[in-house]
Amino acid sequence: MPGKSGGFSLGGMKPHTVKPGSHPPDSLRLTSDEIVALFASGDWEAKFPPLLSVQQAADLLQVPKKTVYDWSSRGLLKGCCRKVGRHLRIVRSRFIDLMFN
């Protein structure tokens, strides 16, 4: 239920802490090697090249293109995207790292 600040309360639960470099067994965190392995197949590599368009990034995460633009405008994609002229380009490995880690 939203709290007074407009955010959600954890209901007294403490956030799970993880030692740097380790992941709990049920974690969705991906290592760099796992990210590379995801795109080792020729089909995936061709569909999602190392430098993605907004449409490709949206397709990769199965979200609307508008969502990717919204994340970018809110600064949530810092470090993984750059404007090239009027177009936004996204570095695939950093994008996946940001989304899952």
Give an account of the 3D structure.
By secondary structure, the protein is an alpha+beta fold. The protein has a domain at 32-100: Multidrug-efflux Transporter Regulator, Chain: A, Domain 2. The protein contains five helices and three strands; from the N terminus they run H-H-E-H-H-E-E-H. It has helices at 32-38, 42-47, 54-61, 65-73, 92-100, and strands at residues 51-52, 81-84, 87-91. The chain has a three-stranded antiparallel β-sheet with strand order 1-3-2. A hairpin with a 2-residue loop joins strand 2 (81-84) and strand 3 (87-91). Helix 3 (54-61) crosses helix 4 (65-73). The protein is globular. Residues 1-20 have low confidence and may be disordered.
Please render the helix and strand layout as text.
Blueprint: H1 32-38, H2 42-47, E1 51-52, H3 54-61, H4 65-73, E2 81-84, E3 87-91, H5 92-100
Helix pairs in contact: 3-4
